[in-house]
Amino acid sequence: MSNNRSVAFHTLGCKLNFSETSTLSRQLEQEGFEKKAFTDKADVYVINTCSVTENADKECRQLVRRIQRRAPESFVVITGCYAQLKPKEIAEIPGVDLVLGAAEKFNLIQHLSSLTKGDEAKICSCDIETVSGFNASFSVNDRTRTFLKVQDGCDYSCSFCTIPMARGKSRSDSIENVVKQAKSLAENGVQEIVLTGINLGDFGKGGDGGKKHNENFFELVKALDHETNIPRYRISSIEPNLLTNEIIEWVANSKSFMPHFHIPLQSGSDTVLKLMQRRYNSELYADRIKSIKKVMPHACIGVDVIVGSPGETEAYFKESFDFIHALDISYLHVFTYSERAMTKALDIKPIVPITVRNERNKLLRNLSYQKQQYFNAQHFGETRPVLFESVKQKDPNDIAMLEGYTDNYIRITTPFREEWSNKIVDWKIS
Prior knowledge:
- The protein is an alpha/beta fold.
- It is built from 13 helices and 20 strands.
- It has helices at residues 15-30, 54-70, 81-85, 87-91, 108-112, 163-167, 175-187, 217-227, 245-253, 270-276, 282-295, 314-326, 354-378; strands at residues 6-11, 34-36, 44-49, 75-80, 98-100, 122-124, 137-138, 145-149, 151-152, 171-172, 192-196, 232-235, 260-266, 300-307, 331-336, 383-388, 393-394, 400-406, 411-415, 424-428.
- Helix 12 (314-326) links the parallel strand 14 (300-307) and strand 15 (331-336).
- The model has no long low-confidence stretch (mean pLDDT 92).
């Protein structure tokens, strides 16, 4: 392995995965590896997987096949949630050399040193119940925006979800360490940090062998606001039952936390929410939306929804659709339910046909488009701060463009100007 000094990464799934991939990439670059694009020839390919949907599993297999065609002599490493859940299944994919579970992901360098091409795939995994450590990570693709992982794992037991089996128990960094990282990122010119985690609002549970931090997410938000100079923070996603009124009030008056929330709903039907084993009902969810809009009428609110889960009859879907339609929200992320091994949802009936799931997905995506257009139109004529990216984009006519987002997450695109790159500019929305 000593002569193999180039590596390429590919990430499937959530923002948390992107932050971890970025950290792994920096670790290998510090060891002398040259980072290459995934479409180039490299000595080592690392695929950081997701297993939330069946498509993520399929995509992993497709990526391995492409590598085999492009560079059959290269080493292929699979890590992430899929690797923790089904290590033996992955090890049997032709071309895979190393499978790293949740506890071994950040020991990639040590494992690479002992690899020999042509040997049987090596599996380095463990019982997820034994995973208790927290590995800090952040993504830096450019100076503009960074995804900073502050929490990992989940203690919830939603009937459709494999994440607790793939990520382990809820655990997090300490406020002291997060503040230290944020200060370091500020020194490197980062303008916006997106706080990420599997169950972000559950921040505060120890990540050092079970030792309790006795901290919580609200205390983290206050510390970052008071003690760092990052111009912008965003909360990536937070469960409605963990989004307290004190957090909402703080964001409303914060100097750096943006008026933008992403709050998973999954269904607007209380019957389906019970089948999903969610920890709230539609009344609580609607109350959170009202609380936000009362103090921040301009706030952007994104919502996760799953369609076609077992037990979602036509009547329950209509109930969910009508509930979402009535909410004062800005956009939806719509997911089509897919069966996952070892989940309780497999025992719930009736099963929704795939064609019906897809139809419901389209209906909600159309609703999302309408919500987004209405939200944007509400702010036409206003002047709001826009953080423009530090990289050029190309439009269909091959014209260099800048893209950025207002504080309340309205996307703005304009012809490229160097002086606006990685800068916050007051912008009249039209």
